[in-house]
Amino acid sequence: MNTIPILNIAQFDKEESLDNFYSNDLKKHLQKNAEIFHKPHKHDFFLCVLFLKGSGRHEIDFNLYKIEPGSVFFLMPGQTHYWKFDDDPEGYIFFHSQEFYELFFLNRKPQQFPFYYTFSNPPYLTVTPSKRSVLEAYFREIYEEYQRAPMYHIQKIASLVNLVYIELSRLYVTEEVSNRALSPTYLQTLAALEKLIAASYKVEKSAKFYANKLGFTTKHLNRITKTTLNKTTTELITERLILEAKRLIVHSENPLSHIAEELGYEDYAYFSRVFKQKTNTTPLTFKKDYRLLKQG
């Protein structure tokens, strides 16, 4: 039913790439993949890109972000996105799998970094010129190591990626959030909750179901989600459902009533009311408006 293509690392520079890592000069990457980047698609890996020049827009899960020099974007597996450029961009890009990071940093995951905590966190950052030069040097060195493949290049790439993430995390996290010192246990629970919601939201829409599955009371699970994201469990469930609804509405040719059924709503009128309550528009109007936006 969902027609959004899902890309994997092996599709990029197949002859030269590592099984679970890829890096390139951004201009070269876009030239090689000119048939892909301007169309909505998903990845099954983590993606990080630094823009040094260029302008345009980047749509990620139906949210539009401005592209400008200093823009950094972080995408997690499963997010839908596409690029539209007004001026030719320059910069660097790298992808990696979950396994790539965990292989070199035992008992650590990419999700330890704030931009990968949760899908609810903004997937972008704008870096000032003074900080940009530091990041540019790291990104360039990752690209050069990947291209030359000298001795121990995989180990060095992993270390450089970790340094990039550390530098970006310091820029990404505001002082207010930093002072909150989020509990690692809370973050682990949040990651488990999002994974469970992704697997079950079409049939289970009750906060109590997810709390029971995770071994918490509904009240305690809400305390965790409010502390980490300032949202309730029910809000997270509904956000995931609405996101999938948007994807199916614009990327499939199925009737809206069938999409409602796919998402667990036998009554289309009720589904339409839920959708409008959360988006301020009906499914049909959303579909028409999105197509006009894509044409613009």
UniProtKB/TrEMBL annotation:
Any one GO MF annotation of this record: sequence-specific DNA binding
InterPro entries to which the protein is assigned, alphabetical: AraC-bd, Homeodomain-like_sf, HTH-like, HTH_AraC, RmlC-like_jellyroll
SMART domains: HTH_ARAC
Organism domain of life: Bacteria
Residues covered by the HTH araC/xylS-type domain: 191-289
UniProt keyword terms in alphabetical order: DNA-binding, Transcription, Transcription regulation
Protein's name according to its UniProt entry: Helix-turn-helix domain-containing protein
Species: Flagellimonas hymeniacidonis
